[in-house]
Specification:
CATH class of chain A: Alpha Beta
Structural class of chain A: alpha+beta
Number of helices of chain A: 9
Order of helices and strands of chain A: HEHHEHEHEEHEEHHEHEE
Number of domains of chain A: 1
Oligomer: heterodimer
Strand order of the largest sheet of chain A: 8-1-10-9
Shape of chain A: globular
Radius of gyration of chain A: 23 Å
Radius of gyration of chain B: 23 Å
Chain lengths: ~250, ~130
């Protein structure tokens, strides 16, 4: 026998490598940082925010107030327990991965409006064990409060802090309850739904309708003639934390 | 017959204990006739036949819930062709405006406590408060 044990093991090792090598290399290969946009055909709701227009309006809170009134969002002072659908974040906190130490004065330390990004690739949806949150075909990351068991995986998974947990009954913290929209209860997570109940009536989200400065623009990303697409064509825009690959649908004009 | 008083006293106690359910029902204000929910005065029919509603209104509500929240369908077509906005507070409580004397009365009788009202709002409950 000229085929020694040593040669046999060598050949076996090489063929094993041949069979599994490609899969192993693929597994360790870096994902491309920017996958091409893969938005499905039809409607893809999105928003373009112009923080400078917003700042010109001064201390305006019209969009915040409209959202909170429409959806019975409680006002809780304790920051550990607060509930947020749309809120103000400093420019540096909203865009921590901006590759500059010298942002323009117009935006430096200034507040920008932030809300749920309704990501193309939402981490909150991936971790939800009950499908209480899922991605609709029109891009909205929807929430079914009836099915939420309060595990808070989504709160941990969301890189934007867009999900809030109700640590106590929110009703005492709601100044004026709107009967048209249910409140939430203790032990349930909530977040912005892009006003899906208003979109269903062909109305824009409450925050967009309330903004006199037209700093928030809402529309269909898949329609080249839409307001959002024309703003994206004519302005340079950023999305929050693009390196995470979540592909947000909220764009910021800088 | 030295025990006559004791026997009569014991008989009275026995009688009271025997009829306790009657006194208790009197005191608690319940009757043996049923919950008698207060029906709407202006409307004649419900969204489905009353037998179905009596037995299965909770199933219909869950269909509405899933239609609206999960399927984004907000209008429900009844078997008789009428269409309704699928909404607990907006549709059921529009006709059954007196939730306390309709839904609650029946539920208290049956010993069920739907948790829906932790979130869903009875419009009548907030009219007085605030502006």
């Amino acid at each position: 026998m000229s085929f020694s044990r040593r040669a046999f093991l060598g050949a076996a090792g090489l063929s094993a490598l041949g069979l599994t090598g490609k899969a192993a290399i693929d597994a360790f290969a870096l994902q491309p940082p920017h996958e091409p946009a893969s938005t499905p055909a039809g409607t893809r709701w999105a928003m373009v925010i112009d923080p400078k227009k917003c700042l010109e309006a001064g201390d305006c809170t019209a969009c915040l107030d409209a959202c909170h009134r429409t959806h019975n969002v409680p006002a809780i002072d304790n920051r550990a327990h607060e509930v947020k659908w749309i809120w103000k974040e400093s420019f540096e906190h909203a865009f921590p991965s901006l590759q500059t130490d010298y942002p323009p004065d117009a935006l430096r330390d200034k507040p920008v409006m932030v809300l749920c990004n309704h990501c193309d690739n939402p981490p909150c949806v991936r971790v939800c064990p009950t499908q209480a949150t899922w991605k609709r075909s029109d891009g909205i990351v929807m929430m079914d409060w009836h099915r939420c068991i309060g595990c808070r995986y989504c709160v941990a998974a969301c890189p934007y802090g867009s999900r809030s947990f109700n640590w106590s009954d929110p009703r005492p913290s709601i100044a004026q309850i709107t009967p048209d929209f249910p409140t939430r209860s203790k032990g349930v997570v909530e977040k912005c739904t892009f006003c899906e109940e208003r979109i269903a009536r062909d109305e824009p989200p409450a925050c967009v309708a309330a903004c006199h400065a037209k700093a928030l623009v809402f529309g269909n990303l898949n329609d080249p003639e839409s307001d959002v697409r024309s703003l994206l064509r004519s302005h340079f825009t950023l999305r929050r934390k693009p390196e995470l690959g979540t592909r947000p649908a909220i764009y910021y004009i800088v | 017959m030295r025990d006559r008083h004791a026997i009569i006293a014991a008989l009275i106690v026995f009688f009271v204990v025997l009829t306790f359910p009657i006194w208790y029902a009197r005191a608690a204000g319940t009757t043996s006739r049923g919950p008698e929910p207060k029906l709407p005065e202006t409307e004649k029919t419900c969204v489905m036949p009353v037998e179905y509603m009596r037995a299965s209104h909770m199933k219909l509500l869950l269909t509405w819930r899933d239609d609206v929240v999960r399927r984004n369908v907000r209008t429900w077509i009844a078997p008789d062709g009428k269409s309704y906005k699928a909404s607990l507070s907006g549709t059921c409580l529009r006709c059954h405006a007196n939730k306390a004397e309709f839904c609650d009365r029946c539920h208290t009788y049956a010993g069920v406590t739907p948790y829906c009202w932790e979130c869903h709002v009875d419009p009548a409950s907030i009219k007085g408060s605030g502006t």
